[in-house]
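Hi R.,

Here's the chain you asked about this morning:
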Amino acid sequence: MEQNKLSKNKTVGDYALKSKIGESSNSLSTVWKAEHLSSGDVVAVKQVYVEKLNKHLKSCLDCELNFLSSVNHPNIIRLFDAFQAENCIFLVVEFCAGGNLSSYIRLHGRVPEQTARKFLQQLGAGLEILNSHHIIHRDLKPENILLSGLDDDVMLKIADFGLSCTLYPGNYAEKVCGSPLYMAPEVLQFQRYDEKVDMWSVGAILFELLNGYPPFSGRNNVQLVRNINSCKHLPFSQLIVPALHPDCVDMCLKLLSANTVDRLSFNEFYHHRFLRRNSAILRAPFHIP
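And the predicted structure, written out as tokens:
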């Protein structure tokens, strides 16, 4: 089903598509705000254009469907339904009224360290589930981190598993995929990689939360890799450095280690001192100041 057809007939399955709220950069999928026809429940519907998917992306879609259909966790986007219609697969997931983390950062700029820590604690709680299922996301970035709302009970949700795959301990992947500003240097350099690529992405997200901008940039991927490899000190804003707790800086440095041996593993990240402080709110919603 093509988008121009949907503009004339906005009902698919049991859902009425109301408005487009997102589209993948490679035009392989579109996300719609929708309503269930009988209950009126508001949901998000991800429309995947199957005919555009290569073998690798079809495998990723299978991983996404299998994983999301098997989990129910407050920090992972909830899958309600999935069905096929007219050469498309539709994934019906919970609608997050708070938008994504990228929009939040653009609107508010850098966040206080305490807020960043609470975000990372919730992100870690979701990633614990991925880790237990031997799933690597491979596209963790602010655009794929959703917020349940903008009120006092914000819950962070890991979303868009369209590049995910199963990877067991001791094994490696080789497919280059992800978003360059959040991709680990080993992926950018076409090297094989393991689950630590997600830890690099988490480090980039933490850095951007604290500073309001990503840790590395470049005119192209070659320049980006060169900037990463030549970096002696992370480009923290001098406005925030004096107020950052040493545990926060330590986590950032160890997540954004270009040397994978020195980079935090998931378990080291999850049990790091920076996250263990105020750990009682690990799974609890929180207020964003």
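The beta strands are 11-12, 15-23, 29-36, 42-49, 79-85, 88-94, 135-136, 145-147, 156-158, 165-166.

Let me know if you need anything else.
M.
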